[in-house]
Structure formats: C-alpha cells, structure tokens
Automatic annotation (TrEMBL):
GO terms for cellular component: cytosol. Residues 25-168 form the tRNA/rRNA methyltransferase SpoU type domain. GO terms for biological process: methylation; RNA processing. It holds the Pfam family SpoU_methylase. This is RNA methyltransferase. The keyword Methyltransferase applies. InterPro entries: Alpha/beta_knot_MTases (IPR029028), rRNA_MeTrfase_TrmH (IPR004441), SpoU_MeTrfase (IPR001537), tRNA_m1G_MTases_N (IPR029026). GO terms for molecular function: RNA binding; RNA methyltransferase activity. Keywords: Methyltransferase, Transferase.
Length: 178
C-alpha cells in the first residue's frame, strides 16, 4: 500500500466547499474554553461538510492563531456564527426547524447507537464546556439528549473527541451508504 499524496485526494477548494451541499447538521459549542478544541471541531466539521458551528458564550471565535493551529484553515470553510449564549442559539435553531440534541449524560438520555438520524430532517447538537458540560438550562431547551456509552473509569471524553464521534454518527446515517 502507498499513502496518497494530497493532490491525489481531490479535495474541494474553500469556494467549492461553500457551494457544496452540506450534511444537515449544526454543532453548537456551549462555553468551550479551549481554542484548540474549537479548532478541532471546525476541522472535523469540514471533513464531514456540516452546515455550521455556533460558538457560544466564552467559546473563542476566528480569527485566532490557536483555533487555526488545529483547524488548519477549516475555520475559513465552515460557516460559523457567535451567540452570547447557547440558549439563544438553540432557540434560533429550533425556530428554524432543527431538532436539537444536547450531548450529555442525563436521566432518560438516548444512547448514541439507538439514535438514527433520518433523511429530510435538520439537526443540531450541543456540546458543552470541558468541565461542566452543557448548561442545564440549555439541556432543558433541547428536544432530547444523546449519550455516548462509556465503559472505563472516567465519566467524560474530550469535547473534540466527542464531536468527532457524534459528527461521524450523523454522517454515517445521512451521507454514507453501504
């Protein structure tokens, strides 16, 4: 096997990306404090052609050297908007017809492997602060909560890892066919 060179991968240009059909998914970051995590979410969002990232509260916004370090330019391709709070973002998304799910451990959460996104629907997922998670008032505004099953001693994963798992799950259901 030979590794592909970048030129052989036939990737979209930024302008082609902006014009391309997007996966109907918006990622909402609720007070994510690490700019490296924000950048990583942009990069994963670009890889799966999500609609947008909503940066809320203390979440940093581009331009930023730290965001760029992990986004590697994806902050230029993926649409983003800033909200003072994730509650405001969730309200706007629900009013626009999105089903909004917090990714959080709550009573009655839906385990990710039991959730199947459906074609023709628009979704948003809220990812929380690295220490406190998604604010309770934001959880209360969501249509439901998705939970990634975990089997070790820790109760959480890094928010950028969580974003990768969640975005891939939606892509698998909405974009990838066997």
């Amino acid at each position: 096997m030979r590794k592909l060179r970048t030129i052989e991968m036939d990737r979209l240009t930024v302008s082609e990306f902006k014009d391309a059909e997007k996966m109907p998914l918006v990622v909402v970051l609720d007070d994510v404090r690490s700019m490296y995590n924000v950048g990583s979410v942009f990069r994963t969002g670009d890889a799966f052609r999500i609609e947008a990232v909503c940066l809320c509260g203390i979440s940093a916004t581009p331009p930023s050297t730290e965001i760029h370090k992990t986004a590697l330019g994806a902050e230029d391709s993926v649409e983003w908007r800033y909200y003072r709070s994730a509650s405001e973002a969730v309200g706007d998304l629900r009013a626009a017809g999105y089903e909004v799910y917090a990714v959080e451990q709550v009573v009655g959460s839906t385990k990710l492997h039991h959730f199947a996104p459906e074609a023709g629907r628009r979704y948003a997922v809220v990812l929380g602060n690295e220490v406190k998670g998604v604010h309770q008032e934001v959880v209360d505004l969501c249509d439901g909560c998705l939970e990634i099953p975990q089997f070790g001693t820790k109760h959480s994963m890094n928010v950028s890892v969580t974003a990768g798992i969640i975005i891939y799950h939606f892509a698998r259901g909405l974009m990838l066919s066997d």
